[in-house]
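Support request from a user on the community tier.

User writes: "When I paste my structure tokens into the form, the page sometimes reloads and wipes my input. The last time it worked, I copied everything first. Here is what I submitted, just in case something in the input itself triggers the reload:"
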């Protein structure tokens, strides 16, 4: 928990399961370092279409039971069947993981357009009723300050977001954004739509020159000139880029905290040193 101007602000971060089994040790070491920062929770991503889902639950269980932090397991509707969903909920319950980030997911590379179109559960909201029936999970959902890339308008995206919250999502985590004004405008839109779920602002520190290209093409987040100038400036200087990216994230987080944000969610990219550098500067 962070405190700014007498107000408590949640602090959390995201990790992802390593591709190779022999890298699991590295993620446990990363989590041991993150524990020092006393986050309110740590979330664990879910491979596109359910690949690696076993690793998600193993890491979530480590966070919850060995690290003694709270864990939030991501889960996607794409690639899910009724039977698989019941199995996963059963596994999470047995491992005492009681928070789920309910997502739709994107089409994995090995899934055809046709298979994607015929998926059993269409949206994140499609799996919520079954999770609610199964047990008492705290549910999180994703939201998009610059709208979901497939949404025709901000209004329609927010209307579906409201539906997700009405069905039982308790808290929201935003897609990464690099321009805080986009977030503040979005918060006003949520307020107008009567969406009262607390919102954790998702911040991605850009510590490598080529990271931004991948992140932005996936998320559709806009890039302010200040950030693109940094990337141009440090294109030949990896250490300079890392420091500049950390400083940019610190500036973003400080501004959000000064403006009463509910929570800060760092996309840590499994880098505990970057996460710690940001935490130390904002605490
Ligand atoms: P939804 O809420 O289902 O929305 C998807 C689109 O459909 C939106 O355009 C929405 O407006 C529209 N829509 C919603 N309901 C309806 C409806 N009833 N009728 C018509 N249209 C509708 N992906 C992974 O694979 N693994 C992860 O671990 C992962 N973690 C993420 C964490 C965060 C914080 C975020 C922001 C994203 C994450 N993603 C992850 C990516 C996510 O799966 C994609 O952004 C995906 O395209 C949308 O997921 P969603 O849950 O927001 O979808």
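"...and here is what came back when it finally went through:"
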């Amino acid at each position: 928990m962070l405190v700014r101007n007498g107000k408590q602000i949640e602090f959390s971060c995201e990790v992802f399961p390593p591709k190779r089994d022999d890298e699991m040790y590295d993620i446990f070491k990363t989590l041991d370092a993150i524990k020092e920062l006393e986050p309110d929770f740590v979330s664990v991503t879910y491979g596109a279409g359910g690949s690696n889902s076993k690793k998600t639950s193993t890491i979530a269980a480590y966070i919850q039971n060995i690290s003694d932090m709270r864990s939030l397991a991501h889960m996607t509707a794409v690639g899910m069947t009724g039977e698989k969903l019941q199995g996963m909920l059963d596994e999470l319950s047995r491992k005492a993981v009681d928070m789920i980030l309910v997502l739709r997911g994107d089409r994995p590379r090995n899934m055809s357009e046709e298979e994607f179109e015929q998926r059993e559960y269409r949206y994140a909201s499609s799996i919520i009723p079954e999770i609610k029936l199964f047990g008492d999970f705290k549910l999180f959902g994703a939201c998009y300050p610059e709208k979901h890339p497939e949404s025709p308008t901000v209004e329609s995206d927010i209307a579906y977001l409201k539906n997700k919250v009405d069905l039982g999502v308790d808290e929201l985590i935003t897609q990464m954004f690099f321009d805080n004004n986009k977030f503040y405008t979005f918060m006003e839109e949520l307020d107008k739509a009567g969406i009262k779920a607390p919102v954790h602002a998702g911040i991605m520190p850009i510590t490598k020159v080529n990271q931004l290209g991948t992140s932005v093409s996936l998320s559709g987040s806009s890039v302010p000139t200040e950030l693109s100038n940094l990337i141009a400036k440090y294109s030949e200087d990896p250490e300079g880029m890392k420091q500049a990216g950390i400083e940019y994230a610190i500036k973003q987080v400080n501004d959000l905290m000064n403006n009463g944000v509910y929570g800060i969610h760092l996309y840590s990219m499994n880098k505990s040193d970057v996460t710690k550098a940001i935490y130390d500067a904002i605490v």
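Agent notes: The reload is a front-end session timeout and is unrelated to the input. The chain has a mean pLDDT of 96. The longest helix spans residues 238-258. Escalated to web team.
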